[in-house]
Amino acid sequence: MADKYTTLEQHASYGIGLQMGQQLADNPFDGLDIEAVAAGVKAAFTEQEPEVTDEQIRAAFGVISERMQAEQAEKAQLLAGAGEEFLAENAKRAEVTVTESGLQYEVLAAGAADGEKPTAESTVRTHYHGTLIDGTVFDSSYQRGEPAEFPVSGVIAGWTEALQLMTPGTKLRLYVPHELAYGERGAGNAIAPFSTLVFDVELIAII
């Protein structure tokens, strides 16, 4: 089959369309009509009279926005509930310690009992592996093969608290409630709002 798009200009134009389509696919709404999208793009570019009025568009945007917000709120409630249930069951295990803030941890490896502990002003070198409660990995210095360095006060609250309990050589598994993690905001596409997180954290050194 002959190439339908043969010129550099056509290739670039098609690429613009691909990028727009990918952006729409990343943030779709139920009922999105890609043919109507293409018609709207063409009408705007060629300065044609729109087939849908501004009033209709504003009304549709309002309804779709409210619908998406309601769906997001429902998903957030489900995630928050699942996290709370997970933490409640996890707290029953004898090897799990629950702190006053609600952070949960268990010791996977113990460093020297008389070793130095970081303070909130310290900078540390760590290895870590982070997952959602369903086991989905969202970040891992182990997988990258390179430890991470950061200030103790520059990370989520659950980490800041846990690091100050550790001496070099200690490895903890943290179970972090959403209010000690990324809360109602979440973090990018990987961590939804109200997500409870699980981290294996190894303190290599205080820098």
TrEMBL record:
GO terms for biological process: protein folding. Pfam families: FKBP_C (PF00254), FKBP_N (PF01346). It catalyses: [protein]-peptidylproline (omega=180) = [protein]-peptidylproline (omega=0). Belongs to the FKBP-type PPIase family. This is Peptidyl-prolyl cis-trans isomerase. It is an enzyme of class 5 (isomerase). Its EC number is 5.2.1.8. One of its GO terms (molecular function) is peptidyl-prolyl cis-trans isomerase activity. The keyword Aminoacyl-tRNA synthetase does not apply. It comes from the Bacteria. InterPro entries: PPIase_dom_sf, PPIase_FKBP_dom, PPIase_FKBP_N, PPIase_FKBP_N_sf. Keywords: Isomerase, Rotamase. SUPFAM superfamilies: FKBP-like (SSF54534). It comes from Rheinheimera salexigens. Residues 121-207 form the PPIase FKBP-type domain.
